Amino acid sequence: MSESTQQSSAQSLAFIRWFRALVVLGIIGWLTSTVYNNAIAPDATHPFRLGLDLAGGSHLVYEADVSKIDPAEVPELMNVLRDVIERRVNIFGVSEPIVQVEQSSFVTEAPIERLVVELPGVTDVSQAVAEIGRTPLLEFKLYDESLAQAIATRESISSLTETNASSGAIIGNVKVGGEVVDLETDLPEQPFVDTGLTGRYLETATLAFAGSQSGQLSNEPLVNVRFTAEGGELFADITRAHVGEQLGIFLDGELISAPVINEPITGGTAVISGSFTPDEARELAKNLSFGALPVPIELQSTQTVGASLGAEVLEHGIEAAVLGLSLVILFMLVWYRLPGLVAGVALISYITIMLALFQLVPVTLTAAGLAGFVLSLGMAVDANVLVFERMKEEYRAGATSREAAKVGFQRAWSAIRDGNITSLLSAIILFWFGTSMVKGFALVFGMGVVVSMFSALVITRTFLIALPEVRHSESKLTARLLGSGLVK
Predict the structure, then answer these.
(1) How many CB atoms lie within 10 A of CB 110?
(2) What is the pLDDT of residues 149-167, one digit of tens each?
(3) Which of 121, 246, 303, 445 could form an S-S bond across to 372 if both were Cys, CB 3.0 to 4.6 Å?
(4) pLDDT per residue over 281-318, tens digit each?
(5) Looking at residue 74, which CATH number applies to its domain?
(6) DSSP 349-409
(7) What is the pTM (predicted TM-score) of this model?
(8) The domain boundary residue, chosen from 296, 319, 344
């Protein structure tokens, strides 16, 4: 190959290297501009989402009563409950609510299922509770004759005991459906038994008015409900097997209607009537449409974080991030000179990519997540340090700066890979088993590990390879600029 051909080939390669570096730099610049515009624009498409502890708001903890539910069905029902409450909260325009399911420690005999609701921006607890509203628990139960007789027996014995307290009469046990039950403790208030058909199978509910031919009072407000495919099949099976019996419709444990099943109902629809006013029927239809609860819940605790306190935490977190970034870049500049400057550019690129992911995924930033982000700033240069140390060895052995960079990345890859995999596994374990606060830290930390590998192996490598190629024995000035950080 002639000398001119070699020079032409070298120039082409140099052009490609610089073109790659400029493309990466252009993408980083565009991404930085996009992140900044989304951060300052009041109506941005992808703004930053701040958690309760940074934006202020209300933290509510509900406990679900799953004592009468098959343990195998509890996880599914809790997920349905979460979706229902999230829909209810979104209706009222609460900004970026967080609704999640938590379970008590596995060391307890009976794990307690909890629903955690965080409402950023809502600092009035009473307002926060009102946002969730009175979501009804809808149940369909069958009338049981033997249970009714047992309840009547209990009431008769109780009345006798109250009339003649000295008679020594006590409430004992009777047989109901072939089983012995305690009249005082085992019987419900109403003579109805569960069918398994609840609001979890509800699809829609609409307001309607009865006509005179329907058996209802003319223009009586009603609520038509439509079940899901699974609920429609269950409803058809119930009505088919219990023709002539009463089907009680309970709302929040109160019997509102108990019509007689005249024939099997296979259309997947039902009618709720209960002497409603039009406003009551409309409110009931809205509540059911926006989520009838599959299980009853009870508010256990509330907590409020003031907006000023959240703003203070956010301000201190940003200060810590800026200080950490400055110290890391300063250390890299002092210790590695020009390669350290390249590492600083890669670190800024890392921050830009992380902020873009926070906006686009989107990630809800909490104080714990912000701490994970600050921590990841220092870890983001780990790969650069490993590569630069390997480059030193190659540079001292006589390799050019570009050759030293290529070999340095190859030799450092195994250490970078193993170190980041162990960090990523730690983040996954924390996210899987941790509470909501720990999950925020683990998510940001895990994302930081992945993005830091990309910034080191792609961005840093692209810029280092694009730098002029020199040997330590050549131009002292150039060698000092490019290699002084590599020959200490």
Answers:
(1) 9
(2) 877 777 776 666 555 544 4
(3) 445
(4) 777 776 666 556 677 788 888 877 766 666 777 788 78
(5) 3.30.70.3220
(6) HHHHHHHHHHHHTT-EE-HHHHHHHHHHHHHTTHHHHHHHHHHHHHHHTT--HHHHHHHHH
(7) 0.56
(8) 296
